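We modelled the chain as a single entity of 282 amino acids. Its sequence is:
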Amino acid sequence: MVPDIRFREGTIIDNHVHISDIPDPAWNAPPFLAEQLLRLMDGPYMVAGEARHVGIAVAQPGPGISIKPGWDHQQIHEYIVKAVRQFPDRIIGCMMINPHLGLEQAFAELEHLVKDEGFRMIKMHPTFHHYWPNKSKHLTYPIMEQARRLGIPVMIHTGDPPFSVPALTAPLAEAFRDVNIILAHFGTQKTGYADDAVEVARKQDNVFLGTDWGHLMRIKEGIQTLGPSKLVFGTDGPITEIGMGLRAIEVCCWQPPIGINMPESDRERIFGGNMAELLGLT
């Protein structure tokens, strides 16, 4: 049965978490179970003097699991499906597509995950899967076409060269203006492309920025340049911490020079309202 999650005003949505019941093969990171995620989501976290918690998380496999030798897309997402079924009112699934495993099988699994398991987003990881978002059209365009057909957003990993420079996503956004794209990490990993990410989002109406990995200064610049409707809260958990991410957005409501006098209503849009619209939860 497809989960029926509905957004309630004031709900915080973490649009970017990774969970698994096995170690991540890429870094040998320990498993991070759905139960552990929910404990972190429940906090509580103090925001403007009020105890808050994350109501909904969008979960995907770790990128290392998406390249586990011998595994197909069904196996890669088996634990995400289990978590969604176990916590249907708290966790929404996101499919990470490794195009080198075969697009036909990937799209068959995507159809099942969206129609039968309530998944609501696709993840593209050009760095881990080694392709150019702009040049590898035989891989990227079919994925975008599936997102268009299903009416779901696409999250794209950004922040490290050569495959994940934010500017490389602009041609996709232009070619698929009716598909919403979230640039994960605010264009930041060990290298910073935050200005690049902001510029892509400024020029493309269908591009949004995930706040995960974005630090306070860059987030303030993003809000001032784009407005609050273009940012969506995320953590990339468990490698970053929920409270830290919430704090960076909360501080934007402070007076300058630390904050930018952002209204609390805009804070709530970034915390959850914008993502709820992208996921079709409203």
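As a brief sanity check on the tokenised model: The mean pLDDT is 97. The chain is about 40% helix and 15% strand.
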